[in-house]
């Protein structure tokens, strides 16, 4: 890719990310890819509101992922759930709760790349501010 992600959790298990601020990413800010049992709480993710494609948190091909009590403000999708691994890694058991999301695109997005199934995804107690869309579902692939 021409621009790097700020933080990547790839092919990992048992990861905890708590009480951390991530700011001004050149691309996706936090990418959780092909991982399981990832717990995130108390994150502050802030990107330039005029910068294209700077997603906040992308949960991709991962299972048993929890995001709690966090603030995400980015120009592109604040939280995006996707499956880019060619159908090899489904997304299962994701919880996003008690978060404040701000985005010039979608506060929560399912898809854009859905090459595997996505099941048991729960969003609860989300506060959406100044977003183009609260929820976007973009399913174009075979998942």
UniProtKB/TrEMBL annotation:
It holds the Pfam family Glyco_hydro_28. Belongs to the glycosyl hydrolase 28 family. This is Polygalacturonase. GO terms for biological process: carbohydrate metabolic process. Keywords: Glycosidase, Hydrolase. The keyword tRNA-binding does not apply. InterPro entries: GH28_Enzymes, Glyco_hydro_28, Pectin_lyas_fold, Pectin_lyase_fold/virulence. GO terms for molecular function: polygalacturonase activity.
